[in-house]
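ugh ok fine here u go
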Amino acid sequence: MGTRGLYVVQSDGQYKIAQYGQWDAYPSGQGVGVCSERLATAEGRADFKAKLGNVKFSNNARELDASRFEREVKDYKPGPTFNQMIKQPYPYAGRDVGSEIFRLVSDSTGTIVTTDSIDFANDSLFCEWAYVIDLDEGTLEVFKGFNEKPLDGYERFTRKRGGNVDEMASAESPRKSYHPIRLAKRYHLDALPTKEAFLNDLTEKDDNR
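structure:
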């Protein structure tokens, strides 16, 4: 189902992953894929953090891999959309990856080039759910869209984009009647819920259940 979401990792005061996803972002869909057993132990988190060094952001198709782009994009038929152009040559940058980005990074042995979509959090009309793994705080945060109330100053997405995620500013939504996504639930990574408990926690907030 076309429920859009955002999949984020923070480490060392930086957003290292900020993956846009087009499909099934509600908790009973992509959400359950975020509660990974790999992140439930200190050893697993340390390994995952090390693998974040493989991730490179780029929002320009030619910058994703210039030589490969020139070699492969010519094989597409005239008039491809951006997503069609990058889906095969740049599998990690496509809209279909969703929460799978966490496993792909965890299993990576080389560079993963993906897009920085963190600003999508400001558009809660279309960003319906978001999941943030914060390795600095050792937490998993779940955010809900369709937010028509201003955020409190302490909420994550009142924070200005930049080198330091703690630089504060007033976040503005591109939709006048909506505000950035709002925190729905926070878990400690060393005490992640079971699938059943996760869904029970978010059932009232999951419009697809």
